[in-house]
Amino acid sequence: MSTKAPRGVRLVIALAGRRNAGKSSLINAITEQEIAIVSDHPGTTTDPVAKQYELLPLGPVTFYDTAGLDDEGELGELRIKATRRILWRSDVAVVVVSDQGITDYEKDIINEIYELEIPFLIVFNKCDLTSPKASDIAFCTENGIRHIITSAKELVGVNDVKEAIIDIAPPEIKRAPVLAGDLISEGDWVVCVVPIDLAAPKGRLILPQVQVLREILDCDAIGITVKEREIDEAISNLHRKPALVITDSQVVMSVAGDVPEDIPLTTFSTLFARYKGDLTRLVEGAEAIDQLEDGDTILMGEACSHHAVADDIGRVKIPRWLSQYTGKELNFEFYSGHDFPEDLERFKLAIHCGACMINRTEMLRRIKECNRRGVPVTNYGVAISKLQGVLDRVLKPFNLS
């Protein structure tokens, strides 16, 4: 069994800069491993290279070494786009500047980073060759940009870079994230309802279920896992009422019928709606379901790539339930992994998965971009609960105002 932290809970740190600025050397120096290929020839790094690392006290992080911002040709343009896609989902950015100093390439990427509201710092690399220009230091000072002078080759200033990353990391990253921990107490009984259907992975539970169960144990509560057909018997055999029932969204309607009204009930996906996103905004987005018309196009966002089976939740069940609920002829388009459409305006609604495979920054940025373009956005669990008529009950444990 893997002991690695899930990809979606790792802080993402992107190193960006021109070719031959020393990004690969710096990431190797930071991680103390030969991860990225280092060469004096510009453009050695083509596709983004990821390295997982423990950066304490932040915990698990992923460093990305990206292609140079001054890459050339048609292929170079594609590499630059790949670099910008990495930035789009980054929590922290490190702009690496070579001995040539800050040019228009660096200034352009700094402006993009400002627009994305990503905390960042500038690293003046290769100080073994030359010192940074006084005008570049003045640029950083005048714009309030944190900067570090390093030599990745000579291992000068590398620890300063690590400490700066820790300092500028977003506050929510430094806080312990909560799935259900604030809804339960030590000694509470928590019942988790996990259906085993065609979409269930062979021999294991899906990541949201695993993470919730782990948090239950971390809270010194007692977790009981059952299938939906066993929920009534499980509750009846407990010597006291469970503090919370958490169910897979696909069976929320039947589980809501079996769980007494005085027992709090929610879904794994609803927990992830606030853990990875903005629960209030995702609930507001679900209201747009009632305004859908014939011919409207719905964006279905999946954070992971997987083979769709006959009863796939995102590709089969939700589209069917949505069409039945609205009585409309709707169109559905599906985007997987880190792919997300640029022409959002043509969608009437975006329905996203629980985002267990992407980090919170990327999910929040997707929500923000949808709202900026006037596209209501919700997630699987919230949408399903609305379609099944149990949304108010599923939201009750969170005391949303």
Question: What can be said about this structure in brief?
Answer:
This protein is α/β, with parallel strands linked by helices and 401 residues long.
Describe what this molecule looks like in 3D.
- It is a single chain.
- The chain has 15 helices and 14 strands.
- α7 (207-218) links the parallel β7 and β8.
- The longest helix is centred in the first third of the chain and has 16 residues, at 73-88.
- Mean pLDDT is 88; it is low at 36-46.
- 36% of the residues lie in helices and 18% in strands.
- The protein has 401 residues and is α/β, with parallel strands linked by helices.
- It is globular.
- The protein has three domains: 7-174, 3-Layer(aba) Sandwich (Rossmann fold); 181-271, Rossmann fold (3-Layer(aba) Sandwich); 278-387, Rossmann fold, CATH 3.40.50.11410.
- The chain has a six-stranded mixed sheet, sandwiched between helices. It has a four-stranded parallel sheet with strand order 8-7-9-10, sandwiched between helices.
Number of helices: 15
Main pleated-sheet profile: 6 strands, mixed
Q: Structural class of the secondary elements?
A: alpha/beta
At the first level of CATH, the class of the largest domain is Alpha Beta
Helix content: 25-40%
Share of residues in strands: 15-25%
Spatial strand order of the main sheet: 2-3-1-4-5-6
- Kindly report the average pLDDT value: 88
According to CATH, the fold-level topology of the largest domain is: Rossmann fold
Radius of gyration: 24 Å
Task: State the fourth-level CATH superfamily of the largest domain.
Answer: P-loop containing nucleotide triphosphate hydrolases
Low-confidence stretches: 36-46
Question: What is the domain tally?
Answer: 3
One letter per element, helices H and strands E, the order comes to EHEEHEHEHEHHEHEHEHEHHEHEEHEHH
Shape: globular
For the record, give the distance between the C-alpha atoms at the N and C termini, rounded to a whole number. 41 Å
